[in-house]
Each structure stands twice: as C-alpha cells, then as structure tokens.
Design goal:
This protein is mainly beta and 91 residues long. Helix content is 0%, strand content 65%.
Length: 91
C-alpha cells in the first residue's frame, strides 16, 4: 500500500488488490464521477485529487499503470470514498 496526498494534505491510499486491480480510497467531503454514453464510469475525482480517468496513468510500486476501467465502491464509513481501478502496466 502506498499513500499519496491530496492538494489539501489528506491521505489517499493506493493498494494493489489483484494482478490488474488497484483500490484508491481516502477521506473526502465529496467525489465526482463522469460516465460515457454506455453508462461506464470514465472519471472519478476525489475532493482535492487525485482525479482518475480511463486512459490516464497512476503510479504504484515503482510502475506506471494505465487505467482501463473505474468502479466506484460504496464505503461503509461516512466521509470515505473509494474506487477500484482495472489497470495495465505501462512498460
């Protein structure tokens, strides 16, 4: 697990949960999402960042990963947001 900071200094954790999946979560007042015409989530934005989008990149474990899919998850805790990214290593 790695910790990155939002622009407001809040922790966001990035955790590898499968060979091609990363979970990003953190405390946030709100998050925003965008979807394409087929209803697939294409962007997930935590308050203060990071803003994650399909086709974008995220760093974890010394590698760059290309985001192939985004799935928002319901958190059991108020004020905590999370999403699961389907990713592919960028070599």
């Amino acid at each position: 697990m790695e910790i990155v900071k939002s622009r407001y200094g809040l922790d966001r954790t990035v955790e590898k949960i499968g060979s091609d999946r990363l979970r990003v979560m953190g405390e946030t007042q709100f998050s925003r999402q965008a979807q394409n015409d087929e209803g697939q989530i294409t962007m997930f934005d935590f308050e203060g960042g990071p803003c994650l989008s399909v086709g974008g990149h995220v760093s974890h474990s010394g590698l760059q990963w290309t985001i192939k899919g985004i799935k928002p998850e319901k958190s059991k805790h108020e004020g905590l947001s999370e999403c699961v990214l389907t990713v592919e290593a960028k070599y």
